[in-house]
Specification:
- By secondary structure, this protein is α/β, with parallel strands linked by helices.
- The protein has one domain.
- The protein is built from 11 helices and 8 strands.
- The strands form 2 sheets. The protein has a 6-stranded parallel beta sheet with strand order 4-3-8-7-5-6, sandwiched between helices. A two-stranded antiparallel ribbon has the order 1-2.
- α10 links the parallel β7 and β8.
- α4 packs across α6 and α5 packs across α10.
- The protein is globular and about 45 Å long.
- The two termini are 32 Å apart.
- 43% of the residues are buried.
């Protein structure tokens, strides 16, 4: 697939308020929305295909892990010790046995799911290093969707409507999240069959977590920082659709609003 950098715009998603809020860095924000996209395919067509594929996997109860990668993950896979504002502390790919765990998880996601790195003009060096890391380990980027497609998916009415009557699992640490608010928001979208599975706020990237789920979920929303690929892989036995939701948990619980990030403002 031949690729090129293009400014990403999608019908019904208005990023204007986001750019206005961050007007001091507006150009940087626009560079953030200029993504690597396939030549000869419109952005809308690419997203519509992604959306239909995700909903089809849900309806077929087919395992489909969807993993996002951005600056924190780029730092982690480059070998740097990584800390995040969400509570992750001293995560290192070079800790004993950790890289093996991640390579197994990444290979599973690359084969059966979607790898969604943030390939934009903001992260040229970092993203090149990450793609090189994958390529050197026999995982050239094939099943690719843009990072922001996941945000757009999680606020899309067609996707949210497809969750009604489904078994949904919330897999994250709730240390810095409001579970009651999250449940209220999801229930407002008709999502009622919700199981909560708490994992640690740190250590997940080293494989230090257990999935305690009483039933198989139709969809699991994961918030696990750089440990997300391990959780998505572990969910193969516990869920069909497994999505690295990350920041969107903080949209649901009201910590941030839909103007804080790109492609969350569906109108």
């Amino acid at each position: 697939m031949s690729m090129e950098f293009r400014f990403l715009e999608l019908q019904h998603y208005d990023n204007g308020p986001h750019f206005e809020r961050f007007n001091k860095v507006a150009e940087a924000r626009r560079r953030e929305a200029t993504l690597l996209l396939p030549k000869g395919v419109s952005s809308q067509e690419f997203f519509d295909t992604f959306l239909k594929g995700v909903i089809a996997a849900l309806e077929q109860r087919r395992y489909l892990p969807i993993a996002r990668f951005c600056d924190g993950e780029y730092s982690f896979y480059s070998g740097r010790v990584t800390n995040t504002c969400w509570g992750e502390s001293q995560s290192s790919l070079h800790a004993p046995g950790v890289e093996k765990l991640h390579l197994e998880a990444l290979r599973l996601i690359a084969q059966e799911g979607l790898i969604c790195p943030n390939l934009n003009l903001m992260y040229l060096g970092l993203q090149s290093d990450f793609l090189e890391y994958l390529s050197q380990r026999g995982m050239p980027l094939k099943n690719y969707a843009p990072f922001y497609f996941v945000y757009a998916l999680l606020v899309n009415p067609l996707f949210l409507g497809s969750l009604r009557g489904r078994n949904v699992a919330l897999v994250t640490s709730f240390t810095n999240k409001s579970l009651p608010r999250i449940l209220t928001v999801l229930q407002a979208h008709g999502v009622g069959n919700i199981e909560v599975c708490e994992i640690p706020s740190s250590g997940v990237a080293h494989g230090e977590f257990t999935l305690n789920l009483a039933r198989k979920a139709d969809v699991a929303f994961v918030g696990a920082g750089t440990g997300a690929p391990l959780v998505l892989a572990a969910l193969r036995r516990h869920a069909s659709l497994a999505i690295d939701a990350g920041f969107v948990y903080h949209l649901w619980d009201g910590t941030f609003d839909r103007y804080e990030r790109l492609f969350l403002n569906y109108v």
